[in-house]
Amino acid sequence: PRKIIIDTDPGQDDAVAILMALASPEDLEVLGITAVAGNVPLELTERNARIVCELAGKPGTPVYAGCDRPMKRKLVTAEHVHGKTGLDGPDLPVPTMPLQQAHAVDFLIETLREAPSGTVTLCALGPLTNIATAFTRAPEIVERVQEIVLMGGAYFEVGNITPAAEFNIYVDPEAADIVFRSGIPLAVMPLDVTHKALTTAPRIDAFRAMGTKVGNNVAAWADFFERFDVEKYGSNGAPLHDPCVIAYLIEPGIFEGRHINVQIETLSELTLGMTVADWWRVTDHAPNAMFFGDLDADRFYSLLIDRISRL
Ligand code: BDR
Ligand code: CA
């Protein structure tokens, strides 16, 4: 199995991604989960990460708390999407598993220093603050990262937090800029992909039909999350953004994209956090990211439902 660290700001869709990864030990070895401030403040994201590990029956998974705010800006949160707790929807128990003592950034640095070079993949499901802070503090770890697979950005689908920007990149554009300039192989799941990964009614029914605690929780999260998106975007169900990252690691053939140059806007107030993606290759800037544009949604959901049903 591939060794991964999940960097996350749960978030209902982050929660489903974590469950999917923890349900896939033959493909993925989760070395740890690092929480970051994003959808809701850090006290809630680290707590939510522990709730999800317990729900998966994996309370031994190490969870670390990381940065409580972006590198240079004030934190912007998304309670309007995820509710006050970040995991609104079902009733969830208070977690009893411990939070690790170490800071998430130290865990990232130490793990990358100790593991053989090129054997650890970072899965980023929130603002990129923890990862960019680790790279800034310990630049020698950058070349040791195997790959970063992240949810963030948009091209044709433009923005969901401003007209120009996607939430994860917008919250910490300086951190995203560091990651996109790092030279590490990047696989990027933008809104162009995730807005096609919709939780339609039959898909939500499939989670509920599992008759398990996990299946019921995923269905309740999807119902909560969906209210917002269906009203706002008029789409047939809500996008399950972050699980696309995990699905890609398990079955990359589900996704289609292009290896292109992507740069992050950090200066303009109007388009702050925009992922300027050279989709049509109109510049000669070197490609730095595999930027996805499409997925086979039925294949994605059959993989997701199969993995979630194991828990
Ligand atoms: C991203 O922002 C968060 O609200 C979701 O968890 C996802 O990571 C989508 O823009
Ligand atoms: Ca997220």
Write structural notes for this entry.
The protein has twelve helices and ten strands. The radius of gyration is 18 Å and the shape is globular. The protein has 311 residues and is an alpha/beta fold. The strands form two sheets. The protein has an eight-stranded mixed β-sheet, sandwiched between helices. It has a two-stranded antiparallel sheet with strand order 8-9. Helix 1 links the parallel strand 1 and strand 2. The longest helix has 21 residues. The mean pLDDT is 96. The two termini are 18 Å apart. Helix content is 37%, strand content 17%. It binds beta-D-ribofuranose (BDR) and calcium ion (CA). Calcium ion binds next to loops. GO terms for molecular function: purine nucleosidase activity; uridine nucleosidase activity.
Q: Which ligands does the model contain, each kind named once?
A: beta-D-ribofuranose, calcium ion
User: Taking strands numbered 1, 2, ... along the chain, how are they ordered across the largest sheet?
Assistant: 3-2-1-4-5-6-10-7
The helix content, as a percent range, equals: 25-40%
Largest sheet entry: 8 strands, mixed
| Overall number of strands | 10
Beta content comes to 15-25%
Structure classification: alpha/beta
Distance between the termini: 18 Å
Calculate the mean pLDDT score and round it: 96
Low-confidence stretches: none
From N to C, what is the helix and strand string?
Answer: EHEHEHHEHEHHEHHHHEEEEH
Query: What's the total helix number?
Result: 12
C-alpha geometry: globular
Radius of gyration: 18 Å
Pfam family, one: IU_nuc_hydro
Keywords: Glycosidase, Hydrolase
Domain Inosine/uridine-preferring nucleoside hydrolase: 4-301
InterPro entries: I/U_nuclsd_hydro_CS, Inosine/uridine_hydrolase_dom, IUNH, Ribo_hydro-like
